[in-house]
Amino acid sequence: MKKTILTGLRPTGKLHLGHYFGAAQNWLRLQNDYDFYLEVADIQALTDNFDNPDKVRMNVREITIDLLSIGIDPSRVHLFVQSMIPEIAELTVIYSNLVTMSRLYRNPTVKAEIAQKKALFGNDGESVTYGFVGYPVSQAADITAFSGQLVPVGEDQLPLIEQCREIVRKFNSIYGETLIEPEPLLSPTPRIKGLDGNEKMGKSLGNGIFLADDEDIVSKKIMGAVTDPDKIKKDDPANPDVCMVYYYHKLISSKNLDNICSECKKGERGCVACKKELIRNMMEFLKPIQEKRAYYESHPELVDKILLEGTNDARVKAKEVMASVRKSIKIDYFDEK
């Protein structure tokens, strides 16, 4: 029997290179060897986009198109929409009885995100909602609804997986062995840096290249990328290790890397020429993805069909898990009949 994997993405925008190299590229390998559940987490996206549901709704299809365009295979992956699996919401409510508010506030991931919100909206914390603080409980429901054994994550998400494991252990200790305790599966790729040198490429930071970006947009972004600040003139020697242009050359292509590095160090390569070469390589890398994207954009009915079929398949599993949970907590009143 194949082990089960559960992972997901919040539909708050199209996918960028950080998503691709940091997570999705690994998913393409994993989809061949595991029973793979891939969630479009629209309810979780609403925790901090509750006042903009149109944004979330639009990006459910956009993010699905991106996933299909990079090679996610719906015949191998259960690609589903979170809000269309009511069992997840039911599990979230049940698990909320097993976690204290103080424990949620101590979760390092939640703690960091609350601090960011307070910095943006004031120190009184009034902007932090119950749903936002309870995000780890919802994520535990996502994972366990499909008996997820492995969860691909980056190191920053390990506290969320540990919270899920605590919930599972507490549930099983009270009600008997019912749920599977998941294990994290660390991404083999470190977090991808932004064009501005930021340690994180983010949708809201304006420092990333999206898989759907056309050549004009890619050109503008790369021409503004951070290079070695000590290189003042074209012929000055530079350090490629602090240059985001060289960082992206290494990321997307092995072509000409030795020459790029050598010429940069010797002052034989200007930054503009180097950026133009990166633009050409970047568009060559993006071309097959964007060709597939154009196909799915012109066939929205196919995208909807894939999502609906994947969701229906996923719900079969969620119903099985929910039946076991209801039996364990003695609320399966009429199931015997």
Spatial separation of the terminal alpha carbons: 32 Å
Structural class: mainly alpha
Instruction: Return the average pLDDT rounded to an integer.
Output: 92
Strand content: 5-15%
What are the segments in which pLDDT stays under 50 over at least 5 consecutive residues? none
The biggest beta sheet is recorded as:
3 strands, parallel
Strands across the major sheet, in which order?
1-2-3
- Radius of gyration, whole Å: 22 Å
Helix content: 40-55%
Instruction: Using the alpha-carbon principal axes, give the shape.
Output: elongated
Describe the model.
This protein has 337 residues and is mainly alpha-helical. It contains 14 helices and 5 strands. The chain has a 3-stranded parallel beta sheet with strand order 1-2-3. Strands 4-5 form a two-stranded parallel sheet. Strand 1, helix 1 and strand 2 form a beta-alpha-beta unit. Helix 4 packs across helix 8, helix 4 runs parallel beside helix 14 and helix 11 packs across helix 13. The longest helix is centred in the C-terminal third of the chain and has 29 residues. The chain is elongated and about 80 Å long. The model has no long low-confidence stretch (mean pLDDT 92).
Task: Give me a quick take on this structure.
This protein is mainly alpha-helical and 337 residues long.
Keywords:
single chain, 337 residues, two-stranded parallel sheet, mainly alpha, three-stranded parallel β-sheet, elongated
Topology:
Blueprint: E1 4-9, H1 17-30, E2 35-40, H2 42-45, H3 53-70, E3 77-81, H4 86-95, H5 101-106, H6 108-121, H7 130-133, H8 135-144, E4 150-153, H9 158-175, E5 183-186, H10 215-223, H11 244-252, H12 257-266, H13 271-297, H14 300-328
Parallel strand pairs: 1-2, 2-3, 4-5
Helix pairs in contact: 3-13, 4-8, 4-14, 8-9, 10-13, 11-13
